[in-house]
Write a structure and sequence with these properties.
The complex is a heterodimer of chains A (606) and B (120).
Chain A: E1 4-9, H1 12-16, H2 19-32, E2 39-44, E3 56-59, E4 63-65, H3 70-82, H4 112-115, H5 133-138, H6 143-151, H7 154-164, H8 176-183, E5 192-197, H9 206-213, H10 215-229, E6 233-239, H11 243-258, E7 263-266, E8 271-280, H12 289-296, E9 320-324, H13 325-337, H14 339-343, E10 353-360, E11 366-371, H15 376-383, E12 393-398, E13 404-407, H16 417-422, E14 431-436, H17 441-455, H18 461-478, H19 484-500, H20 504-508, H21 511-519, H22 521-530, E15 544-546, H23 556-560, E16 566-568, E17 581-583, H24 593-597, E18 603-605
Parallel strand pairs in A: 1-2, 5-6, 5-9, 6-8, 10-14
Antiparallel strand pairs in A: 1-3, 3-4, 7-8, 10-11, 12-13, 12-14, 15-18, 16-17
Helix pairs in contact in A: 2-3, 6-10, 6-13, 7-8, 7-10, 9-10, 9-11, 10-13, 17-18, 18-19, 21-22
Chain B: H1 4-18, E1 27-32, H2 35-39, H3 42-55, E2 62-67, E3 79-83, E4 89-91, H4 96-108
Parallel strand pairs in B: 1-2
Antiparallel strand pairs in B: 1-3, 3-4
The chains are: A alpha/beta (606), B alpha+beta (120).
Chain lengths: 606, 120
């Protein structure tokens, strides 16, 4: 009889930090202790706290082990599984900065990272074995599809989704029920449901986590959408760079077919639906809905003008509904628990929860799901554990290369679609990159522009040429050659590109520039007028200087300088015995090695 | 899948296998599993408890878990029952048969099996 479950994260994050060898070690040690009949090992999807991976959770206690190494496994098995004593040194027990410090056992649900989360989309991630359809069914899986096919008419399904207030989680926030209702009445010999799993924003990985941790949820939701709009075929467009996700999704589709949950006459209702995976090659533009469909059709992934909209003329010229993974993942729960339940979470116009991928200068890098309307402060300070190394929060970038930044003074913004749009940001797919005082905002804008220049498909001129010119202007500014006129030209060009580009990629590409110009114009001015980078990032505007009165003349900096730019001087500071050193600015390549090595804090960048 | 009944049957069959992961229930039963407990035969007791809780269909309300040394080694195997809002009950010198009675009489029917409870 099984009395304990050991859940090992098999998401991409923990897999790359070595969870496979941990699973093997558990198998060996459980065997050695003759616990095979009592303890079950389960490989799950992502738990979300990727920073502390590889992650292992032991139930029924809910003990959360972080950064487990294969050497720790023997101790966990012998102490915890055999003798019932959790290995305290590995237990993650941060209950929040204001909560009293707890000694000993803290259940997963009480930790700061988890306690204010509300997991709807991620409810099964890290809880079930994604490769076992029975475990999904045990968690009410396919019950929503059953309900829809046996009790509801297609228009009832659309009404429930509309009433719930669900909006597209891919970035635009278009009402999902409305999208379905536009497609449903269109007559055609074939209609399609398409899932956009081409997650391309740098730093965002919530769709991957759902595919890896709960793939059946997507299969079920797409079948429901198919029934609602009258489609019998679905495609999931997922990038080939997500091998674990692709493998698990394929396995889920195979299992669903075997159970008759995909195929002909599902639940004896007469409804047929089948699902196919199409692999993308990782082009960012293929996340744009028309480019994605062009790519599925076997053509080069380029967007096409709208109208006609996909609801009328989409994939293969047929009426199509396209939603992203996270949007679909909400659907089965809304069907089962009702529109009112969903609408009770979130803000007036943004219902439900949103998954964010926390990254950048934050302690708990990972995936969090919170109700819409949670303040940025709560996300960063409580759930994210704050900024490391005592640095000050400067801004957060949402929406990746299509989004904008939220400056520190707006940290109490309640995060939802409309509040973010109002301050020139964008929800986007949910990447949230936290920046501290050491990040240069101009450099950040340049980083995203480099990305969009690379990823522009080249079909329309404003995007192809315009973004390139933007990047050149930013290069000029960050290298100290910019003028005030360049800043104005930059802004003007941004608006031009936004208004004239063909698809969402170009229309949103200037956003990081516009938003930093709006909130951090002073940094741009500092770069062009004072020729300084206030955060000390832009190398061309930096000089490394040795304070000759602090320098004790140890010579460590000179020894480590890769270009021999540091020389001894004749000056001996009062109280010191050896002559101090100085940096030859002409030779210096600004690598910063000297500053990192100086124990006396005599070197600074200016 | 031809009917909802089939789906329901799979769900019922699987429910017990995943319920362990839904967190701690109102009633917690812990077995002392330190060296002293194991030496005195705590593992068969633990296994008997887990099995009986399943057989009696109590997995929705009762969590069976283990703990370290409680400090009364001579009374091992020790089983403690924690119920929300009630005093802790400590059973001592347990064996698998006694464990099954505790599961049936205490955990299912709510009557403490006084003859196994530690005497002051």
């Amino acid at each position: 009889m099984i009395r304990a479950h050991v859940l090992i994260c098999g998401g991409t994050g923990c897999t790359s930090s070595g969870s496979a060898s941990i699973q093997k070690a558990f198998q060996e040690n459980i065997k050695a202790c003759e616990l095979e009949e009592e303890v079950k090992l389960v490989q799950t999807g992502c738990f979300g706290l990727c920073e502390l991976g590889p992650v292992v959770i032991v139930y029924p206690d809910g003990t959360f082990y972080s950064r487990v190494t294969p050497d720790d496994v023997k101790e966990i098995v012998e102490e915890h599984l055999l003798k019932g004593r959790p290995v305290e040194r590995l237990v993650y027990n941060d209950t929040g900065k204001d909560a009293p410090k707890v000694e000993g056992h803290v259940a997963l649900g009480d930790t700061a990272f988890y306690k204010s989360q509300n997991r709807v989309v991620l409810r099964n991630c890290g809880v079930i074995d994604p490769e076992n359809i029975d475990e999904y069914i045990a968690m009410d899986g396919y019950a929503a599809l059953g309900k829809v096919l046996t009790e509801m008419k297609p228009e009832d399904v659309i009404k429930v989704i509309s009433d719930s207030g669900l909006r597209g989680r891919g970035g635009g926030g278009f009402p999902t029920g409305f999208k379905w209702s536009l497609c449903a009445p269109n007559k055609a010999d074939q209609k399609y449901v398409v899932c956009n799993a081409d997650e391309g924003d740098p730093g965002a990985f919530m769709d991957r986590s759902v595919l890896e941790g709960d793939p059946h949820c997507l299969v079920e939701a797409m079948a429901i959408a198919g029934y609602a709009i009258g489609a019998t075929i679905g495609y999931v467009y997922v990038r080939a760079e997500y091998p674990i996700a692709v493998k698990r999704l394929q396995k889920a589709i195979d299992q669903a077919r075997e159970y008759g949950l995909l195929g002909k006459n599902i639940f004896g209702s007469g409804f047929d639906f089948d699902l196919f995976i199409r692999l993308g090659a990782g082009a960012f533009v293929c996340g744009e809905e028309t480019a994605l469909m062009t790519s599925i059709e076997g053509n080069r992934g380029e967007p096409r003008p709208r109208p006609p909209y996909p609801a009328v003329k989409g994939l293969f010229g047929k009426p199509t509904v396209e939603n992203n993974v996270e949007t679909f993942a909400n659907v089965p729960q809304i069907i089962l628990r009702g529109a009112d339940w969903f609408a009770s979470m979130g803000t007036e116009k943004s219902k439900g929860t949103k998954v964010f991928a926390l990254g950048g200068k934050i302690k708990h890098t990972g995936l969090v799901e919170i109700p819409m309307g949670t303040t940025l402060r709560h996300i960063i300070d409580e759930i994210g554990g704050g900024i490391p190394n005592g640095k000050k929060f400067k801004a957060a970038q949402t929406g990746g290369p299509s989004g904008g930044c939220i400056p520190a003074r707006l940290i109490d913004t309640e995060v939802d679609y409309d509040n973010l749009t109002a301050i020139g940001c964008m929800m986007g797919s949910g990447g949230l990159i936290v920046m501290d005082e050491d990040n240069c905002m101009v450099d950040m804008a340049k980083f995203f522009l480099e990305f969009t220049v690379d990823e522009s498909c080249g079909k329309c001129t404003p995007c192809r040429v315009g973004t390139k010119r933007l990047l050149e202007l930013l290069d000029k500014i960050t290298s100290g050659k910019g003028t005030l006129e360049d800043v104005d030209r930059l802004e003007e060009l941004c608006y031009y590109i936004k208004q004239n580009s063909l698809c969402g990629l170009g229309q949103t590409a200037p956003n990081p520039v516009l938003s930093t110009l709006n909130f951090f114009r002073d940094e741009y001015i500092a770069h062009v007028v004072d020729k300084k980078c206030p955060a000390g990032v832009c190398k061309d505007l930096l000089t490394f200087v040795i304070d000759q009165d602090k320098c004790i003349g140890c010579g460590v900096c000179a020894k480590n300088c890769p270009v021999n730019a540091i020389q001894k001087t004749d000056y001996i500071a009062p109280g010191h015995k050896l002559p101090s050193y100085s940096i030859d600015a002409d030779k210096c390549v600004k690598c910063g090695v000297c500053m990192g090595n100086c124990k006396f804090k005599a070197i600074s960048k200016q | 899948m031809k009917s909802l009944a089939e789906l329901q049957a799979i769900k019922e069959k699987m429910k017990n296998k995943v319920i362990l992961r839904e967190g701690t229930n109102d009633t917690r039963v812990v077995v002392g599993m330190a060296t002293c407990g194991i030496a005195a035969g705590a593992r068969p007791v633990l296994n008997a408890l887990v099995e009986e809780v399943n057989t009696l269909g109590l997995t929705d309300t009762v969590t069976v878990s283990q703990t370290g040394c409680i400090g009364i080694c001579e009374y091992e195997p020790v089983v403690e029952v924690f119920e929300a809002g009630k005093e802790k009950v400590t059973y001592v010198k347990m064996d698998p048969e006694k464990a099954k009675r505790v599961a049936k009489e205490h955990l299912k029917e709510g009557k403490v099996v006084t003859e196994f409870v530690i005497k002051a």
